[in-house]
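re: ur question from earlier - yeah i can do the single chain one, its not a big deal. heres the input i used so u can compare w yours
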Amino acid sequence: MIRPFENTLAFSRQADELDSLKTFRDKFYIPQHQGRKVVYFTGNSLGLQPKTTASYIQQELNDWATFGVEGHFLAKNPWMPYHELLTEKMAKLVGAKNEEVVMMNQLTVNLHLLMVSFYRPSPTRYKILCEAKAFPSDQYALQSQLQFHSFDVNEALIEIAPRQGEFHIRHEDILEAIETHGNTIALIMIGGVNYFSGQVFDMKAITQAGHKVGALVGFDLAHAAGNIKLNLHDWEVDFAAWCSYKYLNSGPGGVAGAFIHQKHVNNAELPQFAGWWGHDKNTRFLMDNTFVPIPSAERWQLSNAPILSMAACLASLDIFNEVGMDTLIEKSKHLTAYLEFIVTQLNTKKNNCLQIITPPQNRGCQLSIVAKGYGKPLYEKLMANGVIPDWREPNVIRCAPVPLYNSFEDVYRFGEILEALL
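and the output i got, formated as tokens:
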């Protein structure tokens, strides 16, 4: 990437020309606004559709039409083991072994299923520690788990918040809370990347600190999978779950993923909710009434795979597999840094009305921006002018330049349009 940055159209186009991933932009459908491609900065909410997705889904529709139920065995990609097509590719993305990963259900469903196994409170060790202003669905899940076990949410849920006047949570405050509440914490469950601020948490250090006090540690990776470098196995994270419709581009409501560390998958004492699809594959069709778990993350499956949803996910994973996360993250760092440069330069011109609240050393591709004195009307004007970012109450515009399909010219155009609106 060429440096120093310049806030010019010529510079952005030169940067795009030097981008080794420039051809991947053409592998996605990009929405149009007044006959021109929009600046799509909301892949952290819903990723764009790969152009190959339709053919992947159509293959399964054709096999359904041709074979009916026999498609489970005779389809080009037989449906019985279809989920296994996604396992290795997804495991690479999250830094896991194949036996630690399974694609199934939806994110919050997976979190609840995993907490059946990993939130095992006792009368003295029962608290859950999480970040304040976690995604609401995570908060609901944690609160309802505590209530299910008859604990007072106000007393049993420890929420770590930013300090007064700050927007992101200091790492030392998380570690201090873990140490302070140590022997009462049963579970630490944090979003790997905070959806509001874009802050990336030090998952390795948090896991180590949690294990040191005897707690289990899990992460919601909805805003992390496909965005940042993950090494779940090496970090010894106990469990994690993520959706696939944001950075992983599997389409609205796409199938979710789950990680269970290798040290847990064969633990016969670990409680879980059981279903037919988690039963030993060799004896599944004997229809015995005694559950024999698959010796992998697949044991947490309840029902058979949603084939059409998984086909859409597979189309995107094949693109990720072609690129590789290291290459993707390298571009992401440059693209996000260019967005930071544009916003910072514009801020100087406009009386410091813009504040990036995402910590510069702990971020993926998302920058959360407070536009002081403008609020939601500015977001609405951006939308009306061909920019699609994301608004989060009370005052944040989230912008995520996704390296697979966003360009440096997108970033320049965003700055040009934003300057005209301020």
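The CA atoms of residues 192 and 203 lie 7 Å apart. not sure if urs matches, ping me
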